[in-house]
Amino acid sequence: MAYNYPAEKLSVYLSDDGGSVLTFYAMWEASLFAKHWLPFCKRYNIEPRSPAAYFSESYQDLCTPKEWSFIKDMYDEMTERIDTAVISRKIPEEIRSNHKGFYEWNPEITSKNHQPIVQVLIDGKDQKGVDSEGNVLPTLVYMAREKRPQHHHNFKAGAMNALIRVSSVISNSPVIMNVDCDMYSNNNDTIRDALCFFLDEEMGHKIGFVQYPQNYNNMTKNNLYGNSLHVINEVEMGGMDSLGGPLYVGTGCFHRREILCGKRFTKDYQEDWNGGIKGRIQDTSIGEIEEKAKSLATCTYEHDTQWGDEIGLKYGCPVEDVITGLAIHCRGWESVYSNPTRPAFMGLGPTTLAQTLLQHKRWSEGSFSIFLSKYCPFLFGHGKTNLRHQMGYCIYGLWAPNSLPTLYYVVIPSLALLKGIPLFPKITSPWIAPFIYAFCVKNMYSLYEALSCGDTLKGWWNGQRMWLVKRITSFLFGAIDTVRKLLGLSKMTFVVTPKVSVEDESKRYEEEIMEFGSSTPEYVIIATIALLNLVCLLGGLSQIMTGAWNIHLDAFSPQLILCGMLVITNMPFYEAMFLRNDKGKIPFTVTL
Questions:
Q1: Among this protein's residues, is 73 annotated catalytic?
Q2: Residue 91 lies in domain
């Protein structure tokens, strides 16, 4: 709401898929706080304009201490009231009477069974919709689409499509920006920057969407779990920008409304920038608009329509954003990747190993399911996008099957070493050159990428470890689950990655100590392979040193190096199994 953009042209919508009165209450409290916060932001041109982020960084020097303390106290009081309501799980009756929206909830409502709820908390076209200084406020709308047990809700894509329809009768703006709930705006000029691409005289008419990278503000110095995505953001997404545009990653993106509604690109295309003005009938009351919007957010509205297929975000895949972006590219549109010096959006990344593996399982599983479906970039994009663009999409589609060769390389050479079976040419043989070349060049290039993108040397090493761990766990289970779904043995689910950690977990994360603490199949695989490589290395060395095989060391040098590198990579796992005593260690049942 505090963007450096005319408030009368800005509308903010929140989709609450849980249909919680507590979320509505928090939004109502935020709407009251906004009347003081927005003037404060614009008066001092502060950054960032998320109050939580701003106060955590304590920029007191930009304003008078008295005014800073006043707005900080107001924010703290608001968060305290919200926290109290969340703990008690109810809204006080005296607060309910302040807004008619609270009466939408009754004791029978659950997160999976409730009617559509649409409430306009601030109407930017109403004379009362002003801040403490009399300036117009952006329109603020709460939406909880209808959910019934007998109707599939299509996860995030269904929520996005409901938002597209609801917003069409309230503001109908020609450009839609969507941001996930765990991210916030970090640059108040982002809207203006994105519009520059759409309004470009030469290329603007070709642009379907503008994608910003995902950046996190809670990464450790050395990128413990490899979640900073520096190389993906700087190299891979930036590289796709020259091939037809980056893929749509589901957050931090500006779309033309028309392309989300299925419009194909034509050379004579011209945007109707007055669409938002014509979208709402001026003399229609808010109550009537809310009732009309509710009818667009029902479970049955999409029945026998093209929503989820030709219109809106596509259904049928855990990463619906990727196939939606691919479909947009296949309709002739291009996209633009914008990665400004000051990140446009910031969010929270996973802070435990379990969270990281869960997130990458969903990403790899969804991308692999796309690769094996009718939306495979090579098939769906054939004749519609260039081959290099299709290959760019497939980088992520092949994450999951990459688990199989990785498993081979971390298991078979080590077992062969233990059994005295050489798998590579002797270290003195010229035929070893291709193996040395591939090993050295791959690691040197990945190190160069990491360092040039802002990682530390230790951060690069942590990233290499995490790629190994993700391939033998997240990607492996992602591949298995994808095949199970294709065979009809399981159904598609949408798993939200938790981003909340308890205090001792947060402390270990800040100290860059890996978090385990529970017994899971992923940890069993990690511990098994770590111990296997340690046993094979020690066993192989003892056999060579005692001369049991009557063979020269140079025959096993490549396998010794490979197995030794794996043991060094696995050092944090050995510590978690044998040396640590905290709650985040690998449980004894897993080690056993």
A1: no
A2: 7-348
